[in-house]
Write a structure and sequence with these properties.
By secondary structure, this protein is α/β, with parallel strands linked by helices. Helix content is 36%, strand content 15%.
Length: 366
């Protein structure tokens, strides 16, 4: 069996044609593809507008800046998930408060959120981990009760739906990533959506572009340069047209894994509500903590068998940069972060490869 990578971007000739078209236009910064990608993205999500940025972290950064948060303000985050949003909170002097996650969905445990809310809490950040979608019905109740904005980090869930509504359109803000491993990729890149009034969208747009609106070089507010290039947008424009294909392919791979791993009692797969139709971003396997398997050694042994896998995210309690914000309330996050292994999943992954991966994983576990 040849080497099986953890992830593989789905790039075809039509993507290359659009990239060359953008290149030949000489509009390699802004241009047709940036505008069209934003419009088509908003149309796909069925929202008013979308704003492209150079990566998903910049999208979160823009939201923070637009809300004029101050050092000492508290922001709530899930205890398990990619740490981009909480890392930015540290950078700006905000205070992160961590809430444990549900062990099945791997999304924030809504029943534990209110315990972490204080008078200093200004924002609730929820992450749609691995393509799942959070329980927004309860999250809305909490945000309304405490007058909190919701930032929905949908970097891993583009194309997922909850009750037929697209991920990234539930929160006051939705942020997306098009990094190389994502279902739709531009190499690096991101997008923002918001339910806020047009004036707030305009503020986001100005911050993205040096604080400038229409009058060239005239800075209205201190901003950043978070723009997506026309070259990247050309790839995204092309890829977005195939998003339903990507979703169907990933679901097929997930179902095959389910079949081949169903009899292994020492692992569990991420669970999705019947209300969620997911774009599976990562094939996440949680090893039984009772068996005390060494996850990192397992990853090394699989790699020796030419199967590339990855560990899950680290909980903040395992990271030195969060030493001042350690929490006893995220025990599930601590446990699963030591026991999650992510298997290869991408369109084009063949059944014999999935069978090979599953067989080797079970063999090494036993």
């Amino acid at each position: 069996m040849k080497f099986i990578p953890y992830a593989k971007p789905s790039l075809i000739n039509v993507d290359k044609k659009h990239l060359i078209k953008a290149f030949d236009s000489t509009w390699i910064s802004g241009g047709f593809y940036v505008d069209s990608f934003e419009k088509n993205f908003a149309k796909f999500l069925n929202c008013n507008k979308a704003l492209s940025v150079n990566n998903g972290t910049s999208a979160i950064d823009l939201v923070y800046q637009s809300l004029s948060l101050k050092p000492g303000d508290e922001i709530i985050f899930p205890g398990y998930g990619y740490m981009a949003a909480s890392n930015l909170a540290l950078k700006y002097g905000y205070k992160p408060k961590f809430v444990d996650v549900d062990p099945d969905s791997l999304c924030i445990d809504v029943e534990k959120i209110e315990k972490q809310i204080t008078k200093k809490t200004k924002l609730l950040v929820v992450i749609n981990t691995y393509g799942n979608i959070c329980d927004f019905k309860e999250i809305f109740k909490i945000s309304k009760k405490h007058n909190l904005n919701i930032l929905e980090d949908a970097a891993e869930s583009l194309g997922s739906t909850l009750n037929n509504k697209q991920a990234g359109t539930f929160g006051d803000f939705g942020t997306f990533s098009f990094q190389a491993t994502k279902s739709v990729t531009t190499g690096e890149g991101g997008m923002i959506t918001t339910k806020k009034p047009q004036s707030h969208f305009k503020k986001l747009s100005m911050i993205r572009n040096h604080g400038v609106d229409k009058k060239r070089y005239f800075h209205i507010l201190p901003g950043s340069n978070f723009r997506l290039t026309n070259l990247q947008a050309a790839i995204g424009y092309s890829q977005l047209k195939r998003i339903n294909f990507f979703k169907n392919e990933r679901k097929k791979v997930f179902k095959l894994y389910q079949n081949y791993l169903k009899d292994c009692k020492d692992i569990s797969l991420q669970k999705f509500s019947n209300k969620v139709n997911p774009m599976i971003w990562t094939l996440c396997v949680t090893l039984s903590s009772k068996k005390k398997l060494n996850r990192d050694n397992l990853i090394k042994k699989l790699l020796k068998r030419k199967i590339e896998t990855r560990n899950g995210f680290y909980s903040p309690n395992q990271l030195k940069i969060y030493k001042n914000f350690k929490s006893k309330e995220i025990k599930i996050s601590d446990t699963i972060s030591k026991n999650i292994i992510c298997l290869p999943i991408y369109p084009g992954l063949k059944e014999n490869e999935i069978r090979h991966i599953s067989k080797n994983l079970i063999e090494l576990i036993n």
